Amino acid sequence: MTVRINPSILSADFVNMQTELDRVATADLVHVDVMDNHFVPNLTFGPQMVQRIQDVSPIPLDVHLMITDADRWAPGYAELGAASVTFHAEAAEDPVKLARRLREIGARAGIALKPGTDVEPYLELLPELDQLLIMTVEPGFGGQAFMADMMPKLRRAREVVEREQLAVWLQVDGGITADTITVAADAGADTFVAGSSVYNSGDPTENIAALRAAAEAHAHAHR
Ligand SMILES: O=C(CO)[C@H](O)[C@H](O)COP(=O)(O)O
């Protein structure tokens, strides 16, 4: 199983974004948290900033929209060249229609589930998706503690992906460290978003390598 490490620039220095992107060039995709202060109580940036990130990033963009009215805004992020665009299940009127639109434009389409959102109603949508994001913190802020009680959702999604032989990436986001990543890998995640543990101490390249090694050991042991 391929493991992907996606550093979250929510923990980066926004004033030196180009340098911060270059520091995570050994990762797979850069996770870009778009927050509107409506869907979550925090505000980051919008399409103009993400366009500039796209222009200068050494690796592809994994855009995570924590915004209301995803139907209106999500296609623009696909159009600017993001490799993947993930919206929250509650934020789209018709998640399947929006996922199809994103794929038509050429992006990978993802749905994100907050901790309080049940996975069951979304399992049948998996064939329409390229990735499913199981949040392991309440969306909105970096630096929160990993919620291990989300693992049953992940195991359930992994079960369906394996049974149906789907090429859907299972992503976790929130509180991912070299310790917690092993728990998420054991439960079936293959794509790991990490903000604080990549940027907040030490060297991002070494942190990414440590996360990758820990996840790979468990992803392989698991299957
Ligand atoms: O989506 C997010 C918050 O809503 C962030 O991507 C996530 O929290 C990453 O930060 P950390 O690794 O510090 O938990």
Q: Give, in order, the helices and strands.
A: EHEHEHEHEHEHEHEHH
CATH class: Alpha Beta
Bound molecules: ribulose-5-phosphate
Strand order of the largest sheet: 1-8-7-6-5-4-3-2
CATH architecture: Alpha-Beta Barrel
Structural class: alpha/beta
Number of strands: 8
Count of spatially separate domains: 1
Helix fraction bin: 25-40%
Task: Find the CATH topology.
Answer: TIM Barrel
Enumerate how many helices there are, as a single number.
Answer: 9
Explain what the structure shows.
Substrate binds at residues 8, 64, 140-143, 173-175, 195-196. Pathway: Carbohydrate degradation. A divalent metal cation binds at residues 31, 33, 64, 173. Keywords: Carbohydrate metabolism, Cobalt, Isomerase, Manganese, Metal-binding, Zinc. It is an enzyme of class 5 (isomerase). The protein has 223 residues and is α/β, with parallel strands linked by helices. It has a single domain (4-222), classed as TIM Barrel, CATH 3.20.20. Helix content is 39%, strand content 18%. The chain is built from nine helices and eight strands. The chain has helices spanning 17-22, 47-56, 70-79, 95-105, 120-123, 151-164, 180-187, 196-199, 204-222; strands at 4-7, 30-35, 61-66, 84-88, 108-113, 131-135, 169-173, 191-194. An eight-stranded parallel β-sheet has the order 1-8-7-6-5-4-3-2. Helix 7 runs parallel beside helix 9 (204-222). The radius of gyration is 16 Å and the shape is globular. Residues 8, 10-11, 31, 33, 64, 137, 139-144, 173-176, 193-197 line the site of ribulose-5-phosphate. Ribulose-5-phosphate (5RP) binds at residues 8, 10-11, 31, 33, 64, 137, 139-144, 173-176, 193-197.
